[in-house]
Each structure stands twice: as structure tokens, then as C-alpha cells.
Design a protein that fits this description.
Distance between the termini: 25 Å
Number of strands: 14
Number of domains: 2
Largest sheet: 6 strands, mixed
Order of helices and strands: EHEEEHEHEHEHEHHEHHEEHEHEHE
Radius of gyration: 19 Å
Number of helices: 12
Strand order of the largest sheet: 11-10-9-14-12-13
CATH topology of the largest domain: Rossmann fold
Strand content: 25-35%
């Protein structure tokens, strides 16, 4: 690996093969199911390790209504282990990209831990003001800059410039898991379920905001297309990813529409994974994107 390492946290959505191709490492995050903690697996090999859980196993385990999924940031020891592995592989500069501080303690843990390795490597921790595919798109942009010979200062500056600029839309299939996580009240979840309401969510400034609601899954996808089209001039160059929680086919169809209608300089399809799924449940589909000019 190069002298500069890039690390993302377990809320990110990035296919295993892309993480490997871009030499991107992960900070482990956990999901807790009725007091039993599991590390959210970020690869097929991880899923086989003791104490880890794959997305498929996670969604099977949360089916019972008495299971309340919770999440937990990595602790200092786990964070140190990731930093030490990168340093042992030759990194002397480490860029860490985390989920927004309002949504997790990951940034705080990563920044505190970085101070303990200041004598061995320069570690810069950036709050991406985003999550899921937003983190991943910043990571791949930083990786490409590194491949073009950009300095570590250039990588850090790019990450900070892009933080908060990635547009993210998602449609939740059910309000049940938002209710279990405390994100909406039980009454609101019941009312929404009876009306078959599908909320359209947007990530902005480190928070998740409902911006619309529709009545069916098909209308949810249609509405996201409308919003994307309104914000993205046809013919413009974009970097985009389609994401999902245990619903790859619907996300694939949404992603194919984006690729057909718009010139995607970069595109990938990714599962958001158990940490995101613990809050939203299965059946979420979404889009993350930014215009090519953002990396200029």
C-alpha cells in the first residue's frame, strides 16, 4: 500500500471489490440484538469470523417484533487495531472518513484514538456530514486523487471540501424499524403503516430529514427519480451510487435509470449493511450523488 491510507467506518456502503481495488480499510461498527453484540461484516470473509454478522443473517434475526436492533461505535482498542494494521502495512499518513457526528460517536472515538498514534503516523479524521454511499463517494474520490499523485494534504482538503455536499435520497419501505429505534413514535409508525406511507428521506447537514411521503413502493422510486432529475441537468457528469438494505433488485433498477439518463463518471451499487439497517429495516432503496465539478 502507499504511504497514505484511507479508512471508512461501518456505516459506509461500498462493494467489497471496490474497497479492495481502492485499498480502502474499514473501522468496525457493531449492531446489538437483544443485548448480543455483533460486528457488522464488510466482506464475505468478515462474515465468517466469530462475532461478526452478515447482512443476510442480520435481516433474518430482526424479523421477530420483539427484537430491537441497536448500534454501537467502535471502541478505542478496536480503532487502534485498524490504525496499527495500516501503519504496519507502511502507511505514515491516514485519512479517516466517518459518519456525521450527530448520528454516531464514531468521529469522536476515531479522533481521540488518532492522538495515541501521533508519534507513528499523521492521522486526519474528517466528519463527512453524511453516511452510507455519501462516505464511500468521498473515499473513492480521495483514492483517485491519491492514485494521480496527490499529496496527503490534497486528500484531506478534498475530503473536507466534499463533506456535506453529497446528495442522498432514500425511501424506507416501512416505519416499523424507525419506531423500534426510537426515530418515530409508535403512534406515528402505526398511522403510517395503516396508510402504507413510504417516507422519502434526505441526508443533509448531518441529519436525516423526511422531505416527502408517498403511498406505494413504486411511487417512492418514481418520486426519487423526479427529485434527482430536478436537481441534475441532463447531460451533466455525475458520480453516483444506488444503495439498498436487503433489496438489491429495486436498487439495481433505480441505478440503471440513472445510468441511462445521465452520464455517470462513476457508478456502483452497494448494500448499506446492518448498521444502517438497524435503523431503517430492510427494503430501503436510495441514491447518493454529486456533480463532477465537485472534485475540480
Amino acid at each position: 500500500m502507499s504511504r497514505s491510507a484511507i479508512i471508512i467506518d461501518g456505516t459506509a456502503a461500498l462493494p467489497e471489490e471496490l474497497a479492495r481495488a481502492h485499498d480502502i480499510r474499514w473501522l468496525p461498527l457493531k449492531v446489538i440484538l437483544n443485548d448480543q453484540a455483533f460486528v457488522a461484516a464488510t466482506s464475505a470473509a468478515d462474515a465468517q469470523k466469530p462475532g461478526h454478522i452478515s447482512p443476510a443473517d442480520f435481516y433474518e434475526r430482526i424479523r421477530p417484533k420483539d427484537v430491537k436492533p441497536e448500534t454501537s461505535a467502535c471502541n478505542i482498542e478496536e480503532c487502534l487495531s485498524v490504525y496499527d494494521e495500516a501503519i504496519a502495512a507502511g502507511a505514515r499518513e491516514i485519512l479517516v472518513l466517518t459518519v456525521a457526528t450527530e448520528l454516531s460517536a464514531t468521529y469522536s472515538v476515531a479522533a481521540t484514538t488518532a492522538q495515541q498514534r501521533a508519534d507513528r503516523a499523521r492521522i486526519e479524521v474528517v466528519d463527512t456530514r453524511s453516511l452510507a454511499g455519501g462516505i464511500s463517494l468521498i473515499a473513492t474520490a480521495a483514492s483517485r486523487l491519491r492514485e494521480r499523485g496527490g499529496s496527503f494534504d490534497d486528500l484531506v482538503a478534498l475530503a473536507r471540501k466534499m463533506a456535506g455536499t453529497i446528495q442522498t435520497l432514500a425511501a424506507a419501505d416501512t416505519l416499523e424499524y424507525l419506531r423500534r429505534s426510537g426515530r418515530v413514535s409508535g403512534g406515528a409508525a402505526l398511522f403510517g403503516t395503516l396508510l402504507a406511507v413510504k417516507p422519502i428521506l434526505e441526508v443533509g447537514n448531518g441529519a436525516v430529514h423526511p422531505i416527502d411521503k408517498v403511498r406505494t413502493r413504486e411511487k417512492a422510486v418514481t418520486r426519487m427519480k423526479e427529485i434527482f432529475a430536478k436537481r441534475t441537468p441532463e447531460g451533466s457528469k455525475s458520480h453516483a451510487c444506488a444503495l439498498h438494505t436487503n433489496d438489491p433488485e429495486r436498487a439495481r433498477i433505480l441505478g440503471e435509470w440513472v445510468q441511462e439518463r445521465y452520464h455517470c463518471v462513476e457508478y456502483f451499487l452497494a448494500e448499506a449493511g446492518p448498521v444502517i439497517g438497524a435503523r431503517t429495516g430492510p427494503g430501503v432503496v436510495g441514491l447518493c450523488w454529486y456533480p463532477e465539478v465537485a472534485t475540480a
